[in-house]
Amino acid sequence: MTIAAPLTAQPTIHPHPTYKTDIAIVGAGIVGATLACALKDSGLNITLIETQPQEKAASKRQAYALTLMSGKIFERLGVWQEILPQIVTFNQIQISDANRWVVNLTPNDLGMDRLGYVGEHRVILTALQRQINQSNQIQWVCPGQVQEIRYFDNFAQVWVNSAEHSEPVVIESRLVVATDGAKSPIRQAAEISTQGWRYWQSCVATTIKTEKPHNNVAFERFWYTGPMGVLPLPGNRVQVVWTAPHEQAEALQQLDEAEFLRLLEYRTDGILGRLEFDGPRFVFPVKLMQCDRYVGHRLALAGDAAHCCHPVGGQGLNLGIRDAAALAEIIKNSHTQNKDIGNLENLKPYQQWRKPQNWMILGFTDFLDRTFSTDWFPVVWTRRLGLLFLQKFRIGRTLSLRLMTGLMGRAPEID
User: Fold this and answer.
1) Could you tell me the pTM of the whole model?
2) CA distances from 299 to 119, 162, 176, 347 (A)
3) How far apart are CA 266 and CA 405, in angstroms?
4) What is the pLDDT of residues 276-292, one digit of tens each?
5) CA distance 374 to 200
6) Strand 63-66 and strand 88-90: pairing?
7) Smallest Cα–Cα separation from 223: which of 267, 284, 260?
8) In 10 A of CB 254, how many CB atoms?
9) CA 27 to CA 52: how far, in whole Å?
């Protein structure tokens, strides 16, 4: 992908098919689809550009922890009644240092009746797609591959190779939103720099059938090699995200199935009984990344295109969902006040809102991983004192849960 600097002159005339829209969203995963849904009644025309057909994009075998705030956002978008019956509501989080020093977090610590949800990618994205497809204000270019973006004073030109056209389609948009993932070509082409680092760890993710019921409990088991999250799914299944140093993670992926399950039963202390695979094992590296800026001239970044965090605590997707809801609020406010939705000054409030809140979660997950991923004796006893504090004092549990559930800080308003 190439990019031109903002121009003051009008673009030259070209022979390619040209379409006009108000907002072009590049990347129609959960974050991009959430943004589109949040804007569907705004009076703005939205174009979603996605490299995969809708069904294929929704077929990804992955599950996510969803915070209480994400649930509220989906409820306001009108998709929650379809999602909720197909996912698990969990009412306990069990934190432990290995298989000892167990701390249980419950809804009583938060004054609520639940702590969060676990939903599969297919369920969430399909509900969002169905809502989008009912709107006359939202169009798809799917599958479509962005080849180039040219930025001008009053609009941007998004050049797209589409399966429906033999030549590139040019979409003229007042605003381009990149929700195209951690390796975002749009961010890189715009020369937006990032800060952060790659961890010494990778994650092994898989879905497991359990002999014993999970009782709607989410587990976070901390080992000196890295944390392990075990998230409850419908039908006596769990999603496992097992963090380990790179070589160990690769070895775990290649390990004989019976041996892998034996180790997993040990790591879960046998509380789920005998285990069997319900899907393949995937390995992915983890990193912390934060963009220097979330906005530019006729450009905004959201989700993994703007930031990435360690998967401990299952916060990554939830940050993106809140980004989408916040950006939608900023855009709608500009639109109702007859302001230019793609003007940099009108986009800056989104960055000022979301960047500090995202830094808080990035720092929190980094602290958890570094504090627990070591067997250095002074740190071991320091973290165990921290767990003891959580066990004894409700204020510590309440503050931790408010941060983890997305209830701390400014919440997006969705009409």
Assistant:
1) 0.94
2) 30, 22, 5, 9
3) 29
4) 999 999 999 999 999 99
5) 12
6) unpaired
7) 267
8) 10
9) 9
